[in-house]
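## Example pair
The file below holds two records. Each record gives the amino-acid sequence first, followed by its structure token line.
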Amino acid sequence: MGGRRTPAQVLLLSAVGVVCLSTLVSTMVVLNTTSGPDSPENSQPSPSSGYQETCQAANLRDASHRVSAAVDTLAVELSCKGRKNGSLSEDKSMELEQNLRKIVDLTLKVFFDLSANESGFNVLDIFGILDSLSLGNHSDPGFLRLWFSLKMAPLLPHVDESFLISLSRQNFTCSAFKELVGAMNEELETSERMKRKLIYTSFIKAYLSRKNLPDPGCTKQVNQSEEWIQRFVGNFFVYASLEDLKEINPNFKAEDVFGKLSPDQKAELILDPNSGALRNETIVREVFKSLNMSHDDKQLRQFFLAFTRINMQKNITLITNPAVRGTILNLTLTALAPGFKDFEPEDFTLWFQVNLATVTASLHPGSLVVIPSNISCTSFAAILTGLRKPLESLPLHRSHDVRSAIASFKETFPRCTVAESLMCKQTLVDEDLICAAVNRSQLDQTLSIGNSSEAMCNVTVIAHACSSATHLTPNNLVKS
């Protein structure tokens, strides 16, 4: 217990001493008002009386709250002397701020150590994090920076959605809000992803989306998208959807911050009909070039998770622009090629039946040369199922390359292909294409009038196939 004490320890001990003295006086007053000098309790000390009676959760919470309130008072004094009348130098103000922060950190540690077996409390309420906001001016960035440093930063691991929504409803100015976002950027640099996403959704997005502010979205003083993101969204930008950002700031352009876009946002950019990317092969190439800059396919996989999700949400089954579709398919297969040797059947299923489903219509015989020749027949079957999917929607005249790719793929893996003589052959046809030149109504009328063997034999097989075939009966077929 000996040795010199640091200023922070002295401050903490002083604060705790004041709180303990206040609690002791309160306890003595209660005891004196409930027990006289001649009462049995005073004449016969009980083993269970005295110190043990103060071991209550309420005492711990009350003491912690008082220390926190004392720090609030000292912080207001620091703000006054350090910034308003300038009686403290900047270095001295910073030193005192750091000491006050240590008091809060140490008090939190003591509180959690002593309340390890307690439950049913809200540490944010006990330390009065929102109450302390009322002690200063919301429009003062300096006050908010100090408040964040002393109150919110130490408790940041414990904030929840309810608290962040309440914080977003405070009447901050845009400059004060910018100060908070910047402070959160620094404090949460290495924080877990879910906490950062929660702060974006429940605080940053919630605040910027408010319509009852003097400057909704904080857009009046900023012209460039990149500057707006840097000031008011910061590193939380990666958790925003491009749609959200455009709703908040109608002048926002994703192209202006392309280098900051996450893989999810790049997928959103490509599939946004207003971006023009679905008609611009150059934009698509830039996206995939940026995705493939890493040494693994992590970003590519993340991109396709979002790409597939958005396609399903928008009910997109085919990328209609052939150049864009072919670019996505070819660049993806090229990027995946080095890893195909380690793919399991479920990996081929994911890529050829799910991720690439909207672009496999651009397959041609040369597309699949990147597939290793030693894959299992289960993997072969997974790929083949994906290759056949476009045939369900492509017109016959546009499916030639896909059919050629399938034929070439089968020839490459004869060990996995069942002989056609042992299979029931199924040929997919496009009825509209075949019957386009046949006048069905005139044909049906002709056959209904002259329902004779001669009339039926003068009609081609294709014409019969395109008719309603109501004239064909077992009787006249035998006669024919």
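Second record, same layout:
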Amino acid sequence: MSKDQYKFRKHDNEEQYKVNVKVTRKLKEADAIRAPAQVLDHLCSHRSRRELRVCSLAGSLARVSPVARRGTGGLSAERWAAMPHRKQNLGIQERIQGEIEAAGIKSDKFSELSRIMAQQMLDAKSESTTKRYCSGFDRWKTFILAEGGDLLPAQPIHVALYISSLMNQGSLVSVVQSALYSIKWAHSMIGASDPTENYFVKNLMESAKRQSSKPIVKKDIVTSEQIIELCEKYKGSKAIVVWRDLAYIVLSYSGFLRSDEVLSLKGADIEFQDDFMLIHIRKSKTDQYRQGNSVVISMGQTSACPVSVLKTYVEMGNINVASGSDEYVFRPLYCNKGKKKGLTKKNKPISYTRARETVLARLREVCGTANLGLHSLRAGGATAAARASVPDRMWKRHGGWRSEKAKDGYVEDSMEHRLLVSKSLHL
């Protein structure tokens, strides 16, 4: 079956098709190197995206180069290919087992613990970070294998040449950095010497930063007046899609929330009180250890009141916000004969792409041709709080920023406030 034979009606379907094709190809490659049946059964039964990515990466490593291990002088590609666990931990378990043997103690319990420990080490980074590193390492693999070099551990000069190649192609500095961190991550997982610390690589990285340096063009902010105007326009609407967009907008603006924080909200994360509501953030970009955080949002006095808008959306969508509810708050819509009816019964969040598309389209009705992004809401709320002289400590906590530099980057100073500096000189 070829994608060229037909067109997908939905972009998400096309992306899923690509993922399925890639997974199928990797499974065939694994079978070609005589992967044990139990590993493939484990892979197919769980089917988590992270595991599929890590498995495909580690499976490809099995066919290439030796993995350095203290006390053994390296591991041959043939021995690596014969290991049942090679798909799951990049050779981490083999490395751990070697350290155990070098320490002079060998037991069944230690062998079992080495397997558990290897899997735990893969959880040192978040799922999205591991996925990004796997993708970056795949690109490095394609480059170095075409030239006949060692994939892992890599030679520093080969990594430097790879960075030079990316720069020569005009890659953005973010792409170069991603490639570097991916290689660094893979080597740290097996305790191999880090080739990215080489002076060739470091100097090339600095060169990439200079060559691709461009002025930062920040997105425009959204103001309270624009959100009120939008809510006034639709206050009598009966369309669930409209209230879903409005709820996303007022939550992001009033809670200084990131897009992934809004989209991952579940019914149990929302608590309505008499004159405010409490939003529980289960995981956040700055909460790497998942300790959780809560944002309190006061009831407003206009049609853009965050509490009222969210309550209306919850009631129209028949969303369960009781304690213990596992329903996603922002879900896709289902259609009947081409007409959008309501929120899908499937418990899955709306995709970032679709949220961005619908929310920005809604905002442009009142913002015109402004250069907007979903972060325009978070930045707009922070700017409004700063201009209202809210103490820095309070709105920094409200937005979950860890540093002053990160916080200040979201605030757009008005011309009036900028002129205060020179006016204070009384010249």
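Notes on the second record: The beta strands are 270-272, 276-281, 293-298, 333-336, 339-343. The two ends are 77 Å apart (CA to CA).
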